[in-house]
Design a protein that fits this description.
This protein is of the alpha/beta class and 443 residues long. The radius of gyration is 27 Å and the shape is elongated. The protein is 32% helix and 23% strand. The protein contains twelve helices and 18 strands.
């Protein structure tokens, strides 16, 4: 009797399910158990030097999608992402390595009565990743924006060194490669102090030669890796760039002669004018140095510092330098100190058409130390992204201060692990890559 009762109940339940299917109560994905269609229309919608954006057509009855990637077309695919949304038909792969070719396949999945099932994988799509310099080529400035060889807007994101005389060990080929491949860095800024300890204008002749060699070596390393490099005449305690104008002129004459044919070199001719230095004084200095550079290098991008530690871009927008192409103007901020009012200065200048490059910023206070303000830091990122403004975070070192990207005492000079990154370093990599998954991957 018991068996007959069980069979009868099972039969009744089967008839009940069948009836529900007829009236449309059970979702189609249950009706079509095991029969999810293959994803079609997969294509690469966009590539940057560190990301690949995929799009595809949706599949009826899917609950989500699985992304597979390989470096070989016909084998070796590994699932790298599960998207738990039936309506999401796009995804961006962060952490792609320049020089590498990837193949992607997408499959739909559904949550069925008997468990999750997956449809067949799509036809592979190919994405060869180019380095920043390969993709963008010679940069220029047009209508207030940094643009590439095809006149398309470019927003570079990168890292500034600390003083080259103080933390030179962190600027090397492997360090640049690690930042490029695991952090997504496209540009490295070389901060060469002019008057601080062992600065270019106050150190010995041997020290000056060492600084020039470090710059030359890094320019070559960046070229091999397809990264842009900013050579920064890092005035600070000297305040007024006119003070060491003769040395600056000789320095940029030498470098512009050397790098006139290089497409990846950018010149920053005065870091942070301060101490009451006026725009008229900076402008007078800038015209001399720009003319010197343009004598040899006719088209490289040149970045000019602005008054009050490179903050008064709104004032400069009213009276920019004329007569030369491919000029940009520096803006610096530290998120815990410089908030809404400073963002308004940038927005005012950007709307006026001033080409801005944030060559230095931090997510702590203006001392380079103190507490981190992630809310303000994120607000700055949103503003820079809105106007496509390029930027370099301060600084690549293990100095015992909040703005340093490595923890104090870190001995590694490349191939850093998560434990080597400071809170500033972790924030930066997450901002670039959306996670820390690539850190320490050994790519």
């Amino acid at each position: 009797m018991r068996k007959r009762k069980v069979y009868a109940m099972a039969s009744f339940f089967g008839i009940f399910l069948f009836c529900l299917c007829i009236v449309g109560v059970i979702p189609k994905k249950v009706q079509a158990a095991g029969r999810l269609e293959a994803v079609t229309g997969v294509r690469v919608a966009q590539k940057t030097p560190n990301t690949v954006k995929l799009v595809w057509k949706g599949v009826k009855a899917a609950d989500g999608y699985e992304i597979y990637r390989s470096t070989r077309k016909d084998s070796g695919y590994k699932k790298i992402k599960t998207i738990s949304s039936a309506t999401t038909h796009t995804w961006r792969d962060y952490g792609s390595v320049p020089g590498q070719t990837y193949y992607y396949r997408v499959a739909a999945y559904g949550n069925q009565v008997g468990g999750m099932i997956s449809g067949a994988k799509s036809t592979p799509v190919k994405a060869k990743i180019l380095s920043a310099v390969e993709q963008y080529g010679t940069l220029s400035v047009k209508n207030g924006k940094l643009v590439d060889k095809n006149q398309k807007e470019v927003q570079l994101k990168g890292v500034s060194s600390h003083g080259l005389s103080w933390f030179p060990e962190f600027i090397n080929y492997d360090a640049l490669k690690t930042m490029r491949d695991e952090w997504g860095v496209e540009v490295i800024r070389l901060a060469m102090y002019t008057e601080e300890y062992n600065g270019y204008c106050v150190g010995s002749s041997d020290n000056k030669k060492q600084l020039e060699k470090k710059i030359a070596d890094t320019v070559e390393d960046a070229k091999k890796l397809g990264m842009y490099v900013i050579i920064d005449w890092h005035i600070l305690s000297d305040g007024n760039p006119q003070k060491n104008q003769a040395q600056a002129k000789a320095f940029f004459k030498k470098l512009s002669q050397r790098y006139k044919d290089e497409k990846h070199v950018i010149y920053e001719i005065c870091n942070e004018p301060n101490g009451g230095t006026t725009w008229a004084q900076i402008k007078s200095y800038a015209k001399v140095i720009i003319k010197t550079i343009r004598t040899y290098d006719t088209d490289a991008v040149i970045i000019v510092g602005t008054p009050t530690w490179s903050q008064d871009v709104d004032l400069v927008a009213k009276d920019p330098i004329k007569g030369y192409d491919n000029l940009m103007y520096a803006f610096h901020y530290y998120a815990a100190t410089h908030t809404d009012w400073f963002r308004q200065k940038v927005e005012t200048a950007a709307k006026a058409g001033l080409p801005i490059f944030v060559t230095e910023y931090g997510i702590c206070d203006a001392s380079g130390n103190g507490a981190i303000d992630k809310k303000q830091a994120d607000a700055w990122v949103k503003l820079l992204d809105k106007y496509g403004i390029s930027s370099c975070i301060w600084n690549l070192s293990n100095k015992s201060e909040t703005s340093a990207m490595l923890v104090s005492g870190c001995k590694r000079t490349s191939n850093w692990k998560k434990s080597d990154l400071s809170d500033s370093g972790k924030w930066f990599v997450k901002m670039m890559q959306k996670s820390l998954a690539t850190v320490g991957s050994g790519k």
